[in-house]
Amino acid sequence: MVTPVNPPPLDRTSPPQLTDAGRRLDPALPEGVRARVLRVAHGDPHAAAELAARLTERQTAGLDPLPTEPADVAPELLRAHRGEIRALPDATRLLLLLAAADQYPLATHAFPRAVAAGRLDLRPLEAAESAGVAHATVGGVAFRDAWTRIAAYETASPADRRDAHRLLARVLSGAGETSHRSWHRGAGSLGPSGRLAAELRTAAEHSRAAGRLALAGALTERAAVLCPAPAEQDRLVARAAADAWSSGDADRARRLAARTDDPALSGILALRAGNAPEAFDALLAAAVRRPRAEDVTELLALATEAAVYTGDLRRCREAFVAAHWLGVAPPGALAGLCAAVEGRYEDARAVLKAAAGRCGPGGDPTLLIHSGIAALMLGDHTRAATATLRAAASARARGTPVTAVQAMEFRAYADFWTGRTRAAEAAAQDALAQAYATGQDNGACHLRAALAMFAAVTGDEDACRERAADARAHALSRGLGLPAALAQWALAFLDLGSGRYPAAAARLRALAGFGPGHGHRAIRHLATPHYVEAAARTGDTRVARAAHADYQRWASAVRSPDELALGARCQALLAPGAEAVEHYRTALDLHARGTRDFERARTELLFAGTLRRLRHRTEARDRLHSALEAFESFGAPHCATQARAELRALGTPVPAPAATDPAAVLTAQQLMVARMAAEGATNREIADRLALSPRTIDHHLRGVFARLGIRSRIELVRLLARGDD
User: Fold this and answer.
1) Do 590 and 675 share a domain, yes or no?
2) Is the pLDDT of residue 596 over 90?
3) How far is residue 370's CA from residue 623's CA, in Å, rounded to a whole number?
4) For residue 453, which of 57, 74, 490, 678 is within the disulfide window of CB 3.0 to 4.6 Å?
5) What are the b/e assignments for 456-473, b being 16+ CB within 10 Å?
């Protein structure tokens, strides 16, 4: 029996961006599903619309994978393209078939050699050019679009396809072409062959080692088709699914995974796009079943990530015990988390410091991510930023875009603390698009929560609330305590920055009571300085003192200047009258040795308020000017408003921010919305492009007009035109 070979995407490593094709899709379609529809449709608007109309309820909700075979994605479009190909002369169709096979699954650049070896005449390509379906180039044939290439391949008979692959395999004899030659040999096979399956498996291993995971997945998938042994076939399908996932082809990975029973694969997919507690259980079970120590260590590291995402850090203890039972050294982040959960802060610091130190360039991206997490727990944001940035670069170099997204999730924390709000927001938006395109819905949820925090800092209230609501809805349905807690913190910080102290205190008090799946101990801990501030403003300091005591123990153990500075600030907020002054001075001295410039500015703002009440007017004024300058540079208008109010209370005139430079007074998203509006886009069109609601766009534009001191889009066009000049 001959098994037909259906062409996958031209390039599985570069997910399409949200172009006109995406904007024509139903705005009610979830953003993640919309991005994946574009991917499997190769960015074609007609194919995307056809597929979107055929989705089941579960596919629309993101619960089931999308179809990946062309005939299932857009059958009507494919039928029309096939009609165009069939109308061409036989000799033209044969050349187009050879060119299409040469570009499947990745370009092998063997078409010119195959034409020469087969003594084929290229003149029939003129008919294809006249019909507008393809044209000859120096290196081969350029098709009108991906669907024309697919039609040129699928219109041919199975026998002609096999002949085309065999001819391409015959001419691929150069150095570095072994994998592609094996691919074409496998595609030209009549049926099952243990010898060819073994050859494809070896070629896949070489491709995997070279970071060409899309090709490795295609080779392994074909090896599974040709493998005559059912047990080995099942293993190869699981390996192909893992390669597809790592290369960013989530839907193909999930469809392949459904054909096999591999707990490690199930755990990974659940961790990134499913239920996090179930992912932990699956990964721990897989670790127990794996014989190789390196596999066990990797699975335990992933189980640790699952525990971190759920917020059930007691599970880290389970993984730690399992590591000892299995006779392997537990990953550093796991051992450090266990010590921290048990209150052994000094032990945790020693272990985490060793883990954070493994952030050299070119290292394993997963280990680098864990180094970054360890550095975040130590309050070392510079090292955290370095580790996560190197992790993303290493992941891209290895052909694993999914891991690059995971690195950016945790880089957002370092960027937030060090005050790089605008750049961080842009990077997180890009990572969010990649997370959706690669099927990492849980990572996207985490990034949405981070973007809610950035919106809170920049005073974008509607965006903060919308992002936080989206993040919490997804997080609570998947047991993701980390993004759920981060979203809650973002809402609390928005209240704090807007002077709604009782609301901020209530949110943070609730956060302290949320259990796994709804909250997270680490986020609760990080939010302690904000809770103490809100509680002190409302006069409810009993619980705040207890929270500060634990925070101070951790700060003293990790010895981070930033954490110690915030501990001193909390002590100042809880101290009466003049006693607070020395605590504030200690906090600012510690801030000077740290990296959290945004929190330093907030400490100056709070200190200035105390100085004003104690009638130390000159120093209060100096502190406020310093804080105001910092808030304006960070793009934090709510905090800047508080600083101006304090200055006015001192009787100091404060000029409003100049509106001559939009980039200086608008947030990154406001500037993007302003530019689109100035280009003539309607609110609905802008909403579709940015995957936000029209209500949020309307809020953004009102904020733009208020900050720039203008009243109409005509003034906006003129102002932006002057800025561009």
Assistant:
1) no
2) no
3) 38
4) 490
5) bbbbbbbbbbbbbebbbe
Let me know if 430 is exposed, middle or buried by CB neighbors in 10 A (0-12, 13-18, 19+): middle
Task: Classify 713 in phi/psi space as left (phi over 0), alpha (psi -120 to 50) or beta.
Answer: alpha
In a domain, 634, yes or no: yes
In 3D, which of 249, 299, 284, 288 has the Cα closest to residue 399? Answer: 249
How far from 102 is each of 108, 400, 522, 560, CA to CA, in Å? 6, 24, 52, 57
Nearest to 352 by CA among 389, 380, 313, 378: 378
| Strand 134-136 with 141-143, pairing | antiparallel
CB 339, CB 557: distance < 8 Å: no
Closest CA to 160 of 95, 249, 245, 87: 95
Taking only the tens place, the pLDDT of each residue in 456-492 is 988 888 889 999 999 999 999 999 999 999 999 999 9
Q: What is the per-residue pLDDT across 117-151, written as a single tens digit (0 to 9) for each?
A: 999 999 999 999 999 999 998 888 999 999 999 99
Can you give the pLDDT at residue 398?
A: 85
Q: Are residues 344 and 484 in the same domain?
A: no
Residues 637 and 514 in one domain: yes
pLDDT (average), residues 20-27: 56
Last residue of a domain, one of 408, 427, 442: 408
Kindly report, residue by residue over 180-208, the tens digit of the pLDDT. 999 999 999 988 999 999 999 999 999 99
Q: What is the pLDDT of residue 360?
A: 62
CA 183 from centre of chain: 32
594/458 same-domain check: yes
Residue 302 and residue 426 in one domain: no
Instruction: Domain count for the chain, please give it.
Output: 4
Tokens representing residue 252 in the block: 């193909």
Q: Omega into 105 within 30° of 0, i.e. cis?
A: yes
Domain extent, residue 499, equals 419-649
CA 424 to chain centroid: 13
Work out the mean pLDDT of the chain and round it to a whole number. 86
Rounded-to-5 percentages of helix, strand, coil across the chain = 70, 0, 25
User: Which pLDDT belongs to residue 18?
Assistant: 41
The secondary structure element, H or E, covering residue 50 is: helix 45-54
- How buried is 326 (Cβ within 10 angstroms: 0-12 exposed, 13-18 middle, 19+ buried)? middle
| 143 phi and psi angles, rounded to 5 deg | -85, 155
User: Contact at 8 Å (CB) between 394 and 368?
Assistant: yes
Which of 649, 672, 697 is the last residue in one of the domains?
A: 649
For range 345-356, the mean pLDDT: 75
